[in-house]
Amino acid sequence: MTILVTGATGNVGRHVVDLLLAAGRKVRAMTRDPRAARLPDGAEVVYGDFERPATWGDMLEGVERVHLFPFAYVTSGPGAGFVERAVEAGARRFVVHSAAAAGFAPGDEPGDPGIGALRRHLAEERQAHRGLELMVEATGAEWTHVRPGLLAVNALGWAGRIRAERVVREPYATSGYPLVHEADVAEVAVAALLEDSHAGAAYTITGPERITQAEQVEAIARAIGQEIRFEELTPEQGRERWLRDGCPPEMADWRIELLAAAVDGPGALPPTTTFRQVTGRPPRPFSRWALDHADDFRPA
């Protein structure tokens, strides 16, 4: 049985490949740049692009199960999309790398000018990810939707400044979410790929507890054994800095709202117990993530 991992060189996809190989499974890893993939020798690394249907034929041959990266939604339309072609080629099970927003109740429309930047962003995210989930469900194949919340890897955005200056400058030091380790997301995805009991489930996955931005910086400092300062900016200062760094204005607006919403509580997504329910173990804390990524924050 061949398992196709799309998005194989991403933060989650790499762990999916490693775990499947460790389980003794035949893995085909799809990437747009096989020469730069740096995946384990045991994986069959193949060129594939969701936007180039001509690359799908040989890649899908003999594939029975698929770890589906969310960018697959760029291909849609009856009989024309990647998902439909995979089913035609023999795929019988999909594990969709979705997002927590896909499980939010329908409400706002992305194009509504009367809603704020964060609500508009969440509506767009829900529409895209839930659309892909529905596309898979419509095929009649087995499916499991894996919906991570905010990923701990977002903290890598601080890596350059930490390496150079040992400082993080952000608004809302006490804003926090239950950030999830990408390895936890991969573990749930692999369980769904290999075990029959997860068919038809939608799993929202978070980290074990809310952790503030200031606490994240403290955890990174402990992991690398060096002091890192947190300098709190005003929301206006934070937005201005993000814009200087190349952040689009709309994204800067919803990022400010996202942080502000989680100063005194869990914001849009409180911690879930999904990882423990699926694996029998507690989810990895942010401190573990910081240790796993310590080299990313140390000077070269």
From TrEMBL:
Transmembrane segments: none annotated. SUPFAM superfamilies: NAD(P)-binding Rossmann-fold domains (SSF51735). Coiled coil: none annotated. Gene3D superfamilies: NAD(P)-binding Rossmann-like Domain (3.40.50.720), UDP-galactose 4-epimerase, domain 1 (3.90.25.10). It comes from the Bacteria. Residues 7-195 form the NAD(P)-binding domain. Pfam families: NAD_binding_10 (PF13460). This is NAD(P)H-binding protein. It comes from Streptosporangium longisporum. The lineage of its organism: Bacteria, Bacillati, Actinomycetota, Actinomycetes, Streptosporangiales.
